[in-house]
Amino acid sequence: MIDTVIMISGPIASGNDNAVALTEADGSHGEGPTLLGLGAEGWVYVGLTIFILLSIFVAKAPKRVAEILDQRIADTRRQLDEAQAIRAEAETLLAEAKRRHAASAGDAQAIVSHAEAEAAALLAKAETDAATLVERRGKMAEDKIAAAERQALTEVRAKAAEAATSAAATIIAERHNADSDRALIDRTIAGLGHPN
Known about the structure:
Radius of gyration: 75 Å
Helix content: over 70%
Order of helices and strands: EEHHH
């Protein structure tokens, strides 16, 4: 229970100059409304406690949020650095692949050119060898023909000589006798004494 004393100084409507009013509060007027069993003063304490807790939390929360953001920024930068390193490596590999491709294309062109040059040289050599072979075979054929002609000529001469000898022997046998042989022998002996 709260006792309230109100002092009023000054003129009052009833005309009494020094009037003092004393009022005693009963239970119905002094406490005020309650919520969840707490009055206004209890809710002030609850609000103050919440404010202090929020102040502490809010003071620490931005710092924690900043730390989390800084960590994310660091992670992102690290990932970007890794991505740049991977990109640089990929560009190096691409340049090397392009260089190898160009070199292999150049090598392939050189191999094709070399093969064409070798084919042309082999073709020219084959043509020369074929011409030489044809010429050699033609010469061999001519030589065989000439040899065959010589052999045939020799055989014909031999047959002709044999036929002539045979005919001469027959003629001599028919025409010569011992007297004609003596005259031939005498002439031959007489010719031996004279040089040609």
